[in-house]
Amino acid sequence: MGKRRNEDAQISKAEYARREAKPTQGGGAFPRADAATLAQRRLVSPFSSRDSRPLAREAYSTRIASLNKSFSTFAETALTSSPKEAIVDAARDYVRYAEQLEARFLPKRTEVLSFGSGDCGQLAHSSTLEDENDTVVAKPRVVKALTNKVVAQLSCGGLHNVAVTLDGVCFTWGCNDEGSLGREGDESLLYMPGAVSLPEKVTCVAAGGSQTFAVTLSGKVYGWGCYKDKEGKQWFDAPGTLAPKRKQTTPLLIPSLKNITNVATGAAFNAALTANGDCLTWGLGEVGQLGRSVRDVKVNDEYDLDSLRNDHLTPRKVDFGEKVKVLGCGAYHLLAATELGLLSCGLNNYGQLGDGSTTDRTRPVLVKGLEDRAIAELCGGEHHTLCLLGDGTVKAWGRADYGQLGAGRSEAEKAGSLRETPGDVPGLKDVKSIACGDHHNLALDAEGSVKAWGYGDMNALGLGRARDEFAPKLLEFGVPCTITQVAGGGQHSMVVAAVAD
């Protein structure tokens, strides 16, 4: 069975150029409306859904009520101080957030499809992995084990996946070498989706390099797995008397995280967003990805356990200057959209921070050229970044040599090619969601169609051919379907399709 590769996050561009040409197998907003149109809009009712399932209705109701309160408070303040532009922006954001909540908590019957490399069970097509047809899947294939589950949200990690169903049950599958699944058993059971035992119903999940997190209906966060440092050592959250040097094989409550609405994960770090717009980070911050001051993990070549426990592994607030509206992570960099614009920090060896340099940043810096743009979604790969704007277009920057930026072959002619500031991804319009794998991307448009581009040797693009694509290409699903979610992992991908009753 394949194991996760260890890779130095700070490796130089020169070293990448000396490596093989391919990586090894391993690990929205709305258009502006005029004042008359806005005046006719009504707030979404917490009880307007047709879905009658209690948990989904309760989760949706709680979050829509909070959204309504926040919007009403802001509107009163903005209208008294005049800025018409601000209220228009807020209304556009409100509608986008309301749609996202409905899509997350009130989906129709679903099917999950997976494709790419599945030699560690991450595709969930076989409990034995004896047939190569189940471990190398070139086109999207239905995950039969999830056919009777209504999947509300799905997240891909390096070699594992996590999903939450409409009734609040968390499922995991794939590689469990680092405890990433939060459950134990024979490999044949781990290769297929299995429920994780949690004390509360779950509304949101996230899978990182080797770590997994679940957010509950009450805003608590449970985590399991581990963070692997540059030497391959395993670490995890250590509240109380727990030792930080370990892997966590069962769900652990992270007591300092409360009132959380979303968690984003990188290769070995995490970011959580609270209901009031604060961002907290934790994990391993060896290259500035935590966005705050931390001591080195080593002193005189020995691990500093006090630094690891208190600076790195304990969630702490990041000062972005304003409340965070949209949060995202790359493998080794953090992304956050605020009223000030889009900010980033962390590893920058391929320009993935978008600030016009290749200098690592330990504190958030502004991404160039997006100061006045409405941002709907953020995500990053190992060395590149995608940003979905409110008008349905996509910007990309960072490493380009496998086609990650989708701008054509000319921008990816040699190893180490990069772009230090955001540029357009041609061929995309009316995009409603984006996803990054390590070196590939997926974009979902308003019609439910999906386009993929980037590194394709392991079939993670789902196009039926094992080759890189330097511009977005349309996926074919064989039968008519409407895709509602996209997710990218190390070298595999998954999508969720809405199915009519």
TrEMBL record:
Region (Disordered): 1-32
Biased composition (Basic and acidic residues): 1-22
Membrane-spanning segments: none
Any one Gene Ontology cellular component term annotated for this protein: cytoplasm
Keyword terms: Guanine-nucleotide releasing factor, Repeat
UniProt-recorded name of the protein: RCC1-like domain-containing protein
Signal peptide: none
Domain RCC1-like as annotated: residue spans: 111-495
The keyword Transmembrane is assigned to this record: no
Classification via InterPro entries: Ran_GTPase-activating, RCC1-like_dom, RCC1/BLIP-II, Reg_chr_condens
UniProt RCC repeat ranges: 110-167, 168-218, 219-276, 277-340, 340-391, 392-447, 448-499
Naturally occurring in which organism (per UniProt): Pelagomonas calceolata
SUPFAM superfamilies in the record: RCC1/BLIP-II (SSF50985)
Single GO molecular function: guanyl-nucleotide exchange factor activity
